[in-house]
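Translate sequence into structure tokens.
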Amino acid sequence: MTETLKQQQQLEKLLLSEDLEELNDLTGHFNIFNALKLQNNEIRHSNFLAWLMTPYETHKLGSYFLKEFLKEAIKDYSLDENIALSLKDIAFCNFDDTEVKREYKNIDLLLINHTNNFVCIIENKIWTGEHDCQLERYADIVDNEFKDYSKLYIYLAPYNDCDTELLERNNQERKVYYIPMNYEQVHNVINKILRFKADSISSDVRTFIEHYNNMIERNIMGQTDKQIVDLCRKIYRENKAAIDLINENNDFKAELFETLLEILNKRNDVEVSSTEDFCIKCLPTNINNLDKLKFAKYPANDCIVHINFIGNFRWKNCLYVEIGITGEYNNDTEENRQTRDQLLQFLQNKLGFKKFNGKDNWKYTPYVPVFNAEDFYRCVDTEDLKQCLENKINDVKSIYIDGLRDALNEFCK
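Result follows.
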């Protein structure tokens, strides 16, 4: 038997596998949020949460979700003197007449309870970061409009660590503290609904909430059912040769980066400076006096700051974007170090990043996922891939391109 016939036989064996049919059955369930491609849409997440939080909405849950959400947010910070309310305050407060506002003066979610003199900001981020001092501006708004109210500030993002320190922000003449909250906590609160309130809501509402919870679990938390994991391992063991052959002939990373590079080279708001090992470095165009930042002598370029599109699929399983700042690896001068430190502090304040990670001669912002393997395989052809990548780049454009350009122009005056 020739090698080609042997490979065809291996592929046909995989196609006829009953295990593969079972896997398709387990993973192919309809989900309204995925079907409408809403899983990464920040506005739609905020709309759904606003619906659940509004006591008089059609879900018939009253203020149950709202109260449990606030309890989940505050539980690790209840005794912190920087937080205006305790867990006890939330537990014994009646939220039935709470007003939930969307995009009030650009605040994602604003909760107002006049009876209890309580107001809460919830800033919701899905795969983007804060920018333009948003958190400070929003705190200023509620401080000015609700002077005598107790206030909570919550920053909700996919991977915020609920046991980390509060997010400290300077607000007018005082500091404000945002509680970090993540979507696993939202998932936990919805599980409470499905466990304790399932009998009090209609089947349609229950299905809708279940779809949202399943979407959070798979698309944001990245969890996979153990039954699916075990079945995947079994299929791979029994069809290793065929699956390896598929992988060898489907180098999506190379195609993704080739397409991304083509897109970036055609855009008029960024200029590619170098490419290396699944990393594309670029900068916004139209930056004045950029020579002030050209002293790092990093391989293939000499500017200390870059936008990096990095495809480290082994440990992050996605293409992500970051702003990186590098220094001279050898013989860095004190003047250069001071300029780099000043730029770090300036971008941190201007773009709203809490901190830059990394070592002394290499700092980078927390990464923001842009594109993953699932996104790639949903694209039907190259043109579809180009359009999808363009949309993903535009999703992060306000901070990583426009925001960085404006900040660098101000810094390099």
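Note: The chain has a mean pLDDT of 80.
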